[in-house]
Amino acid sequence: MTQKDPKLLIQPGPQLRQQMTTPVVMRDVWYALTPATLAGVWFFGLGALLVLLTCIAGAVLTEWYFAPEEKRGYFLGDGTAILTGWLLGLTLPPALPLWMAFIGGVVAVGIGKTMWGGMGANIFNPALVGRAFLLATFPIAMTTWTAPGDFFTIPSSVFALPLMQGVVDTVTQASPLGLMKFEHIDTPFFDLLFGNTSGSLGETSGLLLILGGGYLWWRRDLDWRIPIGILGTAMIFSLILFIVDADKYPGPIFTTFSGGMLLGALFMATDPVTSPLTKKGTWIFAIGIGILVVLIRVFGGFPEGMMYAILLMNAATPLIDLYTQPRVFGRELDSK
Amino acid sequence: MNLFRQISKSLSSSLGSFDHGVHPRHHKGQTEQLAIQRLPFGKRFVIPLGQHIGAPAKAIVQTGDAVKRGQMIAEPGGFVSVALHSPVTGRVTAIGSERYADGTFQDAIVIEADQYDTQQVDVNPIDWESLSIEDFIGEVQKAGIVGMGGAAFPCHVKYAIPDGHNIRYLLINGAECEPYLTNDHRQMMEQTEELLYGAEIVRQKLNAEEIVIGVEKNKPQAIKALQDTIKPGQPVRVVPLEVKYPQGAEKMLIKSVFDVEVPAGKLPRDVEVAVNNVGTIIAIAEYFQTGKPLIERVVTVSGPGVSYPANLIVPLGTSIREVLDFAGGLTEETRQVVLGGPMMGESIADLDAPMMKGSSGVLALTENETGRPQEYNCIRCGRCVEACPYFLNPARFARLAKSRMYEEMAESYNVMDCVECGCCTYSCPSGIPIVQHIRTAKDHLRSMKGKVQ
To answer: Which domains are delineated in chain A?
Structure first.
């Protein structure tokens, strides 16, 4: 033979792979979150940006700390830690003291993910675990909402020393959900759509969140059944309540565009790790969240119920998966 | 409920397809317009005795014997086994261990070609019309014909229909869903007459009502050639199929064409269908028309690592190296050579291994195609569940297999129904070799079953 044989690789088939990889999926979510995040920072100022970055720092440092030394690049390379911190940050009040945000990031990754065995092994959405922890630990700071204000003014509470609550020296204002629940004051639709209301720093701009969700849907990173199921159920349920008593209950449009509804439905509930694998299971999961969120918002003690609704359905996911296995080709439904 | 099921069924069963599956780019452009050429005879031919599924054939020649092209050199080793024939006129130089494409050593007959022979063989048509079904089955076995799609399952076994079964349709598999391969495509275009002739033989012998040819829609020329050649009144129908992998898997094809599911553990004959590949039917036609047994096959040589891709008639036993050399040799970027299609084919270690009856393609792939993504944990995205044409749960399999819970995989999740088409691995964004985990589990379960009995 004149030509030298190339070194041949032996590997099991299939030889071809589609090009989408987990880090690419994670990066797609970053891109999808960017518009809503920028809007949040624009409305709430640099303080909000600091809160967000601190959250991400807490999450990434925790991932780095718990990862085995030789595998740190691999653990951080998939981009999930940044995403967890980012999603958590978007659910926090813009004037939250930074040390609290940092703890939130640590808890989200440490207790929400690493403790279960790392990526893919957790039952609950890590970002929401972090938020649930913060809400239970710092209930006042976590429900102090500032009104959108000057870009360069940073509320002094942001720089509160660790273990200190800090003073919120900017204008505080109840969130649209709080106004609705406790005072029955409606918020203008266009404020909800563009995000010019008080609230968590990334939840307020409904339009940009939908834009990001649309991008994910276009990239096939998102199971459309989940947002459609959640929003559809919540809208129908609140419409029924609205028809029963329009003075007492919020309408379906308000329900959809207020609070964490869109962020939760598009970015939190769609976390593949903590949502069901099967199509039928996905519908059950989504409809369950839709019902729970309206129940909690309308009849519960909190103005917002998205977080608990998702966490509760996360807990039900393994069971849903078990009971919604599709019929195997060529077999009866129940034959094993 | 029944009405709902009816409606959803009629909505989901769009013409010519099955549910789930994946859409790899088909890469057939390199060779689909190239006419089939004949590969010149080489010097040394290696005929492995166990190149088909079932019992290996038994050699009936001795070292030193002179053999003629087409002469039987090994007889079937049982009912599920076929005969082997010499691809050239020459001399048997050895009978012993030779390296197979998969890297193992197994028994083979080595034949040195006679350089001065014309390699012409006499034409001896066989009168198939007077044959009984038993004799017909015997003839097909004697001709060494196996499934040419890649599995190499002895063809006559499919024709041995037990009492109480009845074949209504002869389904011819022209889906060719594997990327790169175009050998079936070219054969349907260039050997249309033979295909229809062979199909008619099998149809009459099996007493089937109709011949149905399933072809993926990305082969419009083949569909047209078939439709132009079919005579009015001939019981032949061409069904265009959606371009989707694994459209050519037997049970998927039956579902696509007849909208019938073959029950798990059953065979196509249980739904009154016999399925044969295009190449197999043409081999049968050639045998009865000319008496030429299965001594050569059409092979697609393609992939970015090949200088001059081609569709070739390759005498069986030719080394893979000779086939690649004819196609201009491998480029320097070649990382992997695959025998068969890129989805279900095997990557090979030794270019001197012989071409066999089931070798439908020789593909040279580069880093671009064979690069493996970094493996990450399963993120339960469900892409594999959406891809599995058998509606199994590959994500679950991978997780259970990593914990070696093989029994659980069989008992609760029907792992033995998996046909290893590889859709799950193809679709996994975390780069998990799911189908390899499943193969490990199935091997383990089979060996455990052997121990219990």
So the answer is: 22-322 (1.10.3430)
Cβ distance B263 to A330 less than 8 Å, yes or no, reads yes
pLDDT at A143 over 50: yes
Per domain, the residue ranges of chain B are 2-33+127-290, 383-452
Q: Which residue, B33, B74, B64, B63, is CA-closest to B316?
A: B74
The pTM assigned to this predicted structure is 0.87
β-pairing, B36-38 vs B310-315, is: parallel
Strand segments (E) across B284-434: 296-302, 310-315, 334-339, 346-347, 361-366
| 8 Å CB contact of B425 and A329 | no
- Topology of the domain comprising B2-33+127-290: Rossmann fold (3.40.50)
Q: How many CB pairs under 8 A join A and B?
A: 165
Instruction: Give the pLDDT score at B13.
Output: 45
- Chain B touched by A326 (CB under 8 Å): yes
CA distance A160 to A96: 9
- Torsional sign, CA A162, A164, A169, A175: positive
Q: What is the DSSP letter of B306?
A: B
Average pLDDT score over chain B: 90
CA distance A271 to chain B (A): 8
- Alpha-carbon span B319 to B139, nearest angstrom: 28
Residues of B in contact with A15 (CB under 8 A): 336, 338, 342-343, 345, 347, 365, 369-370
ipTM of the complex: 0.84
Q: How distant, in Å, are the alpha carbons of A234, A332, B222, B416 from that of A327?
A: 30, 7, 35, 15
Q: In this predicted model, what pLDDT tens digit does every residue of B217-260 receive, in sequence order?
A: 999 999 999 999 998 889 999 999 999 999 999 999 999 999 99
Q: Provide the chain A residues 264-323 that lie in CB contact (below 8 A) with chain B.
A: 272-273, 275, 277-279, 282
CB contact under 8 A, B374 and A11: no
pLDDT over threshold 70, residue B5: no
